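In the laboratory, one determines a bound structure by crystallizing the protein with its ligand and collecting diffraction data. In a computational setting the workflow is compressed into a single prediction: the sequence and the ligand go in, and a structural description comes out. We illustrate the idea with tryptophan.
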Amino acid sequence: MRNKRLIGVLVTLVALVCGNLIYNAMISQESKTERKIAKVGVLQFVSHPSLDLIYQGIQDGLAEEGYTEDQVKIDFMNSEGDQSKVATMSKQLVANENDLVVGIATPAAQGLASATKDLPVIMAAVTDPIGANLVKDLKKPGGNITGVSDHNPAEQQVELIKTLTPDVKTIGALYSSSEDNSKTQVEEFKEYAEKAGLTVETFAVPSTNEIASTVNVMTSKVDAIWVPIDNTIASAFSTVVSNNQTAKKPIYPSAAAMVEAGGLASVVVDQHDLGVATGKMIAQVLKGEKPADTPVNVFSTGKSVINKKLAKELGIAIPESLLKDVGQVIE
Ligand code: TRP
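The predicted complex, in structure-token form:
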């Protein structure tokens, strides 16, 4: 009788203690997840309006997913186009105990990829993730890297050039020899342009220092200048424009910001949208999704942008067909 009661008391006690332990564990787990502020490291390769817009989009995308400023701490660095800074800043961002790291533009993503094989790396606006050796398969990345890719609508760009400036026969492609993202775009553009009966001459510059002299040479050889989504050229685009001031060849760049800054027209991918999509993917990975199983999100649909003011200056009439479904007009 006494034993039975004792056992009863013991059982109750054990049950109470266990229950309490489990309850406490649950509570602390909950408050941990509630209190834990996500840490995101961001490396932007260089400053130019398009990349700045992508970074803004990333923050907006994160906020849309509930990661407002008090829920996420962003550890932001900008390598200012300097490859040695890319390497040191990548190591720094990995050492800073961020939950994941984000590379804005190809060289930044490549720097982060060589700094870590375990921490998730999210690519923001990487044109050719396979050619840049960042992922093996866009649908199934497999490693610690995934992200958002901006694939230039090259075929539509060629159509636009033909429609807007039918007299153009030879196009000079101006790009940086050190950016993997540009090499692929130049090959693709060349292929479509040649199919359409145009001749493409390539002009690769090693750095921003050679842009002025290269543009001077180009203007005497080609009918128009085409620029891919190249960070080196984008960051010194005013040099391209000023060295073309006398020759006044039409410039077809690949981002809206460059059309606004003196380009004639283009078909482009929306930069802010790219950033928002990247921000949302960052949120998914913060919530536990694995980069290995997260397909790369490829943006390849473009909208046209036309600099009407410049067209007028150059005496180029814009066909109605182009204005009908134009994405953006610069007046
Ligand atoms: N796609 C480029 C890269 O892979 C980065 C980039 C995005 C960019 N938008 C741009 C470069 C606009 C020049 C202009 O590196």
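Residues 50, 105-106, 125-127, 150, 181, 229-231, 234, 255, 271 surround tryptophan (CB under 6 Å). Keep in mind that any predicted model is a hypothesis to be tested, not a measurement.
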